[in-house]
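Appendix B, record 7
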Amino acid sequence: MRIPDGVRKTVNVVLCLAAVVAIGWSGREIWMVWNNHRQIDAACGGLVPAGRVLDLSEAGGTITHRVLDEGSFDPDTGIPHDCEIYSTEAGERAGTSTGIRWFFTGQMGVLPDGQPLIADAPMKGPLGIRSRTTYPPQPLGGDIAGRVTDSSVTVQLPCEEGTAEDESVRALWARAELMPRRGGQVSGHDRAVLADTAVETANNLADRLGCAERLPDAPDEVPALAAGPVPAARAEGTCAWYGKTGLADRSPYPDEVVESRTDGLAWHESCGLVLDFGRADRVYAKEADSHDWLNSPDTPGEWFVSLHTYAGPVAESVGLTSTDDGEIAEPAVPGKAGRSATDPIWWASSVCDGRPQVHTMTVGRYSYARLVASRMEDVFRAYVDDVTTRRHCTDAVLPGHSTFRADWGTS
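Structure tokens (predicted):
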């Protein structure tokens, strides 16, 4: 059938207009993608893979970044300490008045970095204040020294040959983090993207610093974090040793654990022992009459024993307590052991594969620590024995018997 000339001209005009609109739209999309990449590169010094960040669930729309100030990057190397990325999609989801929201943070650095790691305080236990359920960090796996939290992935990479500011470095680290929403954890998709982002950032930084080693690709799937606490009898990871001691069946010891999977590459692993509210209540009822200083527990997990192990360069800057400005007040010195003069915090040390390790134990809160101090020597020794055996460590140094008494803060 022959199409009339008038109709044909009309159709051609419509098609031409549609083509112009499509070209304009695709051009705008191409410009937006290019600009979003440029924003991330500018914020993160070209070290954080922009394409990975744009794969995150809240990376839609227009991307902007916080302009780096003088303290946000190293002026000699141009390496940013952190970069903050905003998007309009995140803003829309959160209903912000500005229409944008900070949704991603990239961080990186070298070790040693002079930043102290402070042991848990007696007033800060393994469980959160708002919710009894917690999601303890887990190792990344895949032959990578990595740490996965409910909203971030951090990796480390040895770098014995690298230099920064003309100073030699021993390792570097990189972290990719989604700004957390209250409760829960990020999706499996976002966890995998964060792992890829952290690994690629670390490898890019290794290129920049002249490091010889590179991390392998991140695992295709990063498992969701397991919720805690769980009964001590079910412990299978970093607290498995405690379940085997049988102490969890006895008062006044903790009956639940907050644990992670074990991983010999982990530079930081922990085991939290907590008293369920029922156990704590029974201990209080039994002991309060003979110990008038014992405070009644108000929340589950308020009475606890928190154990940590730090390995490698980070072990060289561990403190038992800190000053008001965050500096170390009492260092946990590798090769030695002891207890804080002011708090129920003990430390031990060992050497694993030629690297120093520091092990700490905090008992909280104070009145519970006073009640059980004399019983904690066996607990700490069992923990250190487990870690050093798993990691094939030597030269373990433990606190003396006389330190396990409730006389902190009296001198």
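Remarks on this record: Residues 17-25 have pLDDT under 50 and may be disordered. The radius of gyration is 26 Å.
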